[in-house]
Amino acid sequence: MGRVVALNLFYAEPDPDRWLAYDRYPRRIIRRLLRGPHLPGGQMRMFLNLCQGLDRLGIAYRTNDYGYARRHPNELACIIGKPCVLDRMDWKNPILFGAAVHSHPSADPDLLQRRDIRKILVPGEWMRQMCVPVWGDRAFVWPVGIDTAWWSPTETAKRHDVLLYVKLRWDQDRVVPTLLDPIRAFLQQKGLDVHEIRYGAYRPEEYRAALRASRSMIFLCEHETQGLAYQEALSCGVPVFAWDRGGPWTDPEFYPHRVVYEPVSSVPYWDGRCGMRFCDAEDFAQGFEMFFDAVSRQGFSPRDYILDNLTLEKCAGHYVEIARSLGAQV
Questions:
Q1: Cα(194)–Cα(208) distance, rounded to whole angstroms?
Q2: Rounded to an integer, what distance in angstroms lies between the CA atom of residue 236 and that of residue 86?
Q3: What is the pLDDT of residues 173-201, one digit of tens each?
Q4: Are residue 126 and residue 254 in the same domain, yes or no?
Q5: Which domain does 205 fall in, by range?
Q6: pTM for this structure?
Q7: First CA to last CA distance, the chain
Q8: How many Cβ atoms sit within 10 Å of the Cβ of residue 137?
Q9: Is the same domain home to 171 and 300?
Q10: Is 298 in the same domain as 183?
Q11: Rounded-to-10 torsion of CA 279, 285, 288, 289
């Protein structure tokens, strides 16, 4: 039989030994017993959604077939991520790397010399611009698609006026009293029914249920390279009032001692159909009434934005085009 024409996809989560050789295996079992089944994070979700989009398009792919890659060193290896996959073997293949890549090129300064990487995919434009000084024109924007069938509206009654989505990762001592607490107090003073949800503390079905029960969402995050959570809200037809402060990329692993880059965005995929944005607590207080009035008038159409730009099929199709431009025969 001849070989099957298919994309060669690779993805793995880092799971190194911590204290003793091979202790990753019992630690994996203990984690599952204590925390329950592993929930996909944003980067794993990127891989899973790409596969789902390829399935819908009828595009064949192999997953983590390292033996096949060794036997066919001229075929493109599509390493979705994470970066640990780059060290799984001595790659001879040309590589399409991303979009679950290093947070910044300085994390792996000799990457382009060590591997035959033809393109590096990043989730959004501001990250591409941040990486261009090192990766040059090999840095390319590719967002993953949203499952619009699963993240969809319902006709059920809305119990909550506002879903407050909190993803504040850094500088809590400053951000909570100057942003989060004033927003909570403002919403309470207005007598609105508010349901609060925190990043990393819910299961997808819980988040979907909260979205379907909410008329609007306030999204609090310093910056996002793509922002799957707010896009899932848009796909559910929920308009978003987003904290989009701009300014520098403040990942404490890099800022300000290794990397200073600005401006960033919390909602890098956006237009007027999605909702409105604010930059600080004062701007929130000034703009919320206008936002919520537009919500009441059904003045936004957030799901249309996702259907036009970020479906599983559209984004998977874009990925296939990129792979074909690098020689993939699919």
A1: 16
A2: 36
A3: 899 999 999 999 999 999 999 999 999 88
A4: no
A5: 162-309
A6: 0.90
A7: 18
A8: 7
A9: yes
A10: yes
A11: -150
